[in-house]
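Hi R.,

Here's the chain you asked about this morning:
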Amino acid sequence: MNFLILSGAPNTGKTSIINQLADELLNTKYVGHLNLIIDYSNMNSPSYNLPSFSKNSNGKYNDICVLVEIGTRKVIFHSASDDRQCIDMLAEMLKQHSNVDTVITTCRDIDQPRDERSYMYNKVINPYNSFLLEIPRGRISRTNPNNFSNALLWYETQTLTLCRHNLSQAPYYL
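And the predicted structure, written out as tokens:
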């Protein structure tokens, strides 16, 4: 199983990047080529439709947890790793679908009091990992607040470009 992980502190844009990648791949690049869709956003009541990858009414992206099959490749997009319940949900998905090829997910950085990072690695990544690429996210700050939105847009664009490039290459081939 191949992992692409966006890691960082809270509110550094991890969920935004995952939603934008999912939207681009599932609603544009592979539209009409999805053999299976299971939206596990509500684990007790999965849906067989793609969730919305758009910003909500508060201007934020919602967490997503969706399994898709593109040709013969199974891919999970999972944006929530804030707490052990979210991590357990991903672990349960991987138990149910042990033949997943790629997991695109998030992980907290190393300075979290509850140590969700170690929990994520021990529960999800280490048992299934054959390849791992972790892309760190950080906070954008500017002394001149007029430059903040430009800096944030640049940072998000560059992260998306990096993710797209890596996901198009071995071992992901998406």
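Residues 2-168 form one domain.

Let me know if you need anything else.
M.
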